[in-house]
Specification:
The chain contains eight helices and nine strands. With 220 residues, it is of the alpha+beta class. Helix 4 crosses helix 7 and helix 6 packs across helix 7.
Amino acid sequence: MDGSKKIREQIKQGEGLHLDFKHSINDSKKIARSLSAFANTEGGTLLIGVRDNGSIAGIKSDEEYYMIETASLVFCKPNVEFTHKIWNIDGKSILEIIVAPGNNKPYLAPDYKDVYKAFIRVKDENFVANKIIVDVWKRKQKGFKGIKLIYDDVVVTLFNEITENGSITKSQLTRITGIKSQKANTLLTNLMLMEILETEISESITKFIFHKNYLKDLEQ
């Protein structure tokens, strides 16, 4: 498939976990959040010069690229590496920015109050990553060793809650077990590192569910 046909197919599919459209770029901080989210998740592609509805607007100058470069080098910590190509579609230029999954998570970018936070991609949106998710990334970077899990009353209650209701939040865990916030953070972090739990994320809440690999093990 030639490049221009590939771009047309991507536009046809619409925005999603690995694809984001930008009509234009006028804020490097905002684009830094997109770079952070892609690098922290599974990587992805930004198509600059494409409207949200998939219609092609085109870019007007090289300024678009330089603002993305500024986003990466100035407003992402650490810098988010990317590659780029320019495509001509229907006589208009589209800038393709390709971000690979990062090896140095978490990648931080300024939020709307200029506080640096880690962003994560969920479906076609970027959200601030929960502290527990960030702790998981940091532990993986340090090369965590074996984790010992004690099946005490707290763990049993947590497992029962997910089994019965499909998920649990950190606030629910602390409320129904009475454990302190830090202990809940540590427990949930360890269970994610062990691939017993994973997350379901929305703008307002992070839920913890059984990891697909753990469910497979239970079926065997």
